[in-house]
């Protein structure tokens, strides 16, 4: 089983959106038995909470379920559990690296999946309110990530 973890700050906007979008795409491809997806945050403010209302609204508008998704903290064990740890921005990447014990942690930054985009970090809609922009990035980036997983791991 290939395991993917998306990481953002509070784990209620960007990373659960990515988790839901990739789960949906994996299910559509009939790969739910081969690919597992989770999300986590580097801050503990929202642990145990469902995704943000804006995230739920945009997922509902696009027919994407988010059942069972609840905020949790990323921890050092995640480095052993996941094949891909995908961070939404550099600050989260830095915090995740501290958990791993250093710079050797293999992380992927979400926007590296979309090199043609001018943005180099996924904007946080908790602060910007632009959930549609983030959804569009998640949709495009998850297509690339899924294709990479299929090509490299399956």
From TrEMBL:
<comment type="similarity">
    <text>Belongs to the low molecular weight phosphotyrosine protein phosphatase family.</text>
</comment>
<feature type="active site" description="Proton donor">
    <location>
        <position position="124"/>
    </location>
</feature>
<protein>
    <recommendedName>
        <fullName>protein-tyrosine-phosphatase</fullName>
        <ecNumber>3.1.3.48</ecNumber>
    </recommendedName>
</protein>
<keyword id="KW-0378">Hydrolase</keyword>
<dbReference type="InterPro" id="IPR023485">
    <property type="entry name" value="Ptyr_pPase"/>
</dbReference>
<dbReference type="InterPro" id="IPR036196">
    <property type="entry name" value="Ptyr_pPase_sf"/>
</dbReference>
<feature type="active site">
    <location>
        <position position="14"/>
    </location>
</feature>
<feature type="domain" description="Phosphotyrosine protein phosphatase I">
    <location>
        <begin position="2"/>
        <end position="148"/>
    </location>
</feature>
<keyword id="KW-0904">Protein phosphatase</keyword>
<dbReference type="Pfam" id="PF01451">
    <property type="entry name" value="LMWPc"/>
</dbReference>
<feature type="active site" description="Nucleophile">
    <location>
        <position position="8"/>
    </location>
</feature>
<dbReference type="GO" id="GO:0004725">
    <property type="term" value="F:protein tyrosine phosphatase activity"/>
</dbReference>
<dbReference type="InterPro" id="IPR017867">
    <property type="entry name" value="Tyr_phospatase_low_mol_wt"/>
</dbReference>
<dbReference type="InterPro" id="IPR050438">
    <property type="entry name" value="LMW_PTPase"/>
</dbReference>
């Amino acid at each position: 089983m290939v395991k993917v973890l998306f990481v953002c700050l509070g784990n209620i906007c960007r990373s659960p959106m990515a988790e839901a979008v990739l789960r949906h795409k994996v299910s559509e491809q009939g790969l739910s038995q081969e690919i597992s997806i989770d999300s986590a945050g580097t801050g503990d403010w929202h642990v145990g909470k469902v995704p943000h209302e804006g995230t739920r609204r945009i997922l509902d508008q696009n027919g994407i379920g988010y059942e069972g998704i609840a905020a949790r903290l990323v921890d050092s064990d995640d480095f052993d559990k996941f094949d891909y740890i995908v961070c939404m921005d550099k600050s989260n990447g830095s915090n995740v690296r501290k958990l791993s014990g250093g710079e050797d942690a293999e992380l992927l930054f979400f926007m590296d999946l979309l090199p043609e985009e001018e943005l180099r970090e996924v904007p946080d809609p908790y602060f910007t309110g632009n959930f549609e922009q983030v959804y569009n990035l998640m949709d495009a980036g998850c297509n690339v990530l899924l294709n990479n997983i299929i090509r490299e791991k399956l």
